[in-house]
Design a protein that fits this description.
By secondary structure, this protein is α+β, with helices and mostly antiparallel strands. Helices cover about 45% and strands about 15% of the residues. This is Phosphotransferase family protein.
């Protein structure tokens, strides 16, 4: 990576699951580099959702490297996910027509409940997994398909773990790591966030800060997507032979299905 930056740059891996992120330093200057980053990083940067995009370069092998302003900040703590600034930024993301238009231009098809179920079925067949809890979960997803269809799709981040929310030294909040983003029902993001970080008795207040009233429709859709995402996460861990996490997710899925079937 150093050779195309020029003399005096030191580059080191920044960690992460893909191994495609780096920190580059030259004297007082530090930038965050990523190989083959999200194609809509420029829109995310322009809207202040991620740290500022500085430049983009295409390498001889066809890879694209992006450089962003290095943020001297910190990840949000789990307890901070209940705060209004998190609801406000997620509402801004979900409400961005520019982001949605960019996604559609690059041919991103919406992740509908039908597509989600079909993807899960293919993964289950590929891994030859048979389990009573997963079967119950899949039955629930299929039975509720018609009830959770929702036409107003938005750009969803799909991995809103508190570690992906960065607060810089000026208290500016960012949501990073957009590699898994898709177009879908906003309930996909909302369900994962609320079920993971916000006590149920506070959902109504949190959603009001987001700009939504808590009703039967959003509750049903959030629950559906949490079950679907939990099965998807279970399969991800299963493929990596992380069986302790698989068992934990089985228990969690079982708890989600109590009184639902």
């Amino acid at each position: 990576m150093e050779h195309f930056l020029g003399d005096g740059w030191k580059v080191q891996p920044a960690g992460g699951a893909t191994g495609e992120a780096y920190i580059a330093q030259q004297g007082e200057q530090t930038v965050f580099l990523k190989r083959n980053s999200s194609p809509f990083l420029a829109v995310l940067s322009a809207e202040g959702i991620v740290p500022k995009l500085l430049w983009t370069k295409r390498l001889e092998n066809g890879d694209v490297v992006t450089a962003q302003r290095w943020v001297q900040g910190r990840e949000l703590k789990a307890v901070e996910m209940k705060e209004s600034r998190v609801a406000a930024l997620l509402a801004k993301i979900h409400g961005s027509s520019e982001l949605l238009d960019m996604f559609k231009r690059i041919g991103n098809e919406p992740l509908t409940p039908y597509v989600f179920v079909e993807n899960l079925r293919r993964q289950l067949q590929k891994n030859l997994i048979e389990n009573d809890i997963i079967e119950l979960g899949m039955n629930y997803l299929v039975e509720q398909l018609e009830r959770v269809l929702y036409e107003h799709v938005v750009v969803c981040h799909c991995d809103i773990n508190h570690n992906n929310w960065i607060l810089d030294e000026e208290e500016q909040l960012y949501l990073i790591d957009w590699d898994g983003a898709t177009v879908s029902d906003p309930a996909l993001d909302l369900g994962l966030l609320l079920y993971s970080y916000v006590p149920e008795e506070s959902w109504d207040d949190w959603l009001k800060q987001y700009g939504l009233d808590l009703g039967d429709s959003i509750q049903e859709r959030m629950h559906w997507y949490v079950v679907a995402q939990s099965i998807s996460s279970l399969l991800w861990h299963f493929e990596r032979r992380q069986y302790e996490q698989v068992e934990q997710l089985k228990d969690y899925i079982k708890s989600l299905l109590v009184n639902r079937l």
